[in-house]
Amino acid sequence: MDQIRPLIEEFAGQMLGGFARRDQRAKGELYLRGLMLDGKRKSMQPMAERLGVDHQQLQQFVSTSTWDHVEVRRRMAVWAQEFIDPRALVIDDTGFPKDGKDSPGVARMYCGALGKTGNCQIGVSVHAVTDWASAAIDWRLFLPESWDEEKTTDPDTAAGIRRRRARSAIPEQVRHREKWRLALDMLDEVTAEWGLPARPVVADAGYGDATEFRLGLTERGLVYVLAVSPTATAHPAHAVPVTPAYRGNGRPPLPRYPDKPQDLKTLVTDAGRSAGRYVVWRHGSRKSASNPTASMRSRFLALRVRPANRNIPRGADGSLPECWLLAEWPPGEPEPTDYWLSTLPADIALRDLVRLAKIRWRIEHDYRELKNGLGLDHFEGRSWIGWHRHVTLTALAQAICTRLRRTPKAPAQA
Hints:
Layout: H1 5-15, H2 22-36, H3 44-51, H4 55-63, H5 69-83, E1 88-97, E2 107-111, E3 116-129, E4 134-141, H6 155-168, H7 179-193, E5 201-203, H8 205-208, H9 211-219, E6 224-228, E7 233-236, E8 262-263, H10 264-271, E9 277-283, E10 295-307, E11 323-328, E12 338-342, H11 350-358, H12 361-373, H13 384-406
Parallel strand pairs: 1-5, 5-6
Antiparallel strand pairs: 1-3, 2-3, 3-4, 6-12, 7-8, 7-10, 9-10, 10-11, 11-12
Helix pairs in contact: 1-2, 2-3, 2-13, 3-4, 5-13
Protein name: Transposase IS701-like DDE domain-containing protein
InterPro entries: IS701-like, IS701-like_DDE_dom, RNaseH-like_sf
């Protein structure tokens, strides 16, 4: 820590430089050091003990001090754009297991950290990603319906929810929004408000299966590579709508596709594994005698399709928009294992399409580092703003680690 402290102070000065008060900047740098020091727990009290300070300093800084965590994120996003030069913006969410019921947004939900339904909070995040690095540049805490009194008609239940919200100081305008809507909100903030260049958006099927999310990206002019379920349906790209003959009674018929759409699994299996090609999308670090280059390699098929859904707007001729269907069909597997829909250009190389589809692996690295090394899920406070400030500072600590790894003269232990 003595060796890298100057870099921490310099980086914290850039990111926290908008603070009006010098003592706030000092406490911010102190909190970052606490997150980066060795130690299993990164909650207030253990960090304060390792730093040799009163934990009330850290508590006050995160929970009640007057500083703008959104401005800190904006500065970090601008830094990530310049330092990392991201190839994509990746959306994901992660669970924060909790024992009690007082943390904001806590409810019984599926939690990936537990691998089952449990008592937890869910955080949705946007990451600026390239093959060698990534940065979590924006966050939202998901608020379940059980935390929104507008979602109930029972007066007693509504009164109880209002009391819970007041204890956590949840702003009045913050209401239950689906995770995919939170993702769109953050993309608006990152691109429209902060001015970052548009990048392809990548996400798992939790977002890709939401037709409204895909349409929202297209409305914003953002291309995407989104994982989807094999049960989603589409027409082949060559399918053409047909207008039935008008018999003179009632409204004239509208053009429609003569055949029903097929599910994505059927479209790919009908094309056959022979239509696929082997693609190496990156080289890992675990080399072996059988794989000396540690290459990530599999068979992929790319087909042009027209996703079918009643919510998707159609053209004047009744046609649905065309996009890519990408499927991974690994050797030895009887059927494809993964599917994506993408609005990347029709002339994109298969390798480039696959690399973007697979770039989500960086998010698993992010969450692992943020949780295991930097205490992302160790926050024990019960305030809405405290949670958002803690995850912002944890992401800032990870950005410092990224910079250290990229600095040629950084200490070996960094």
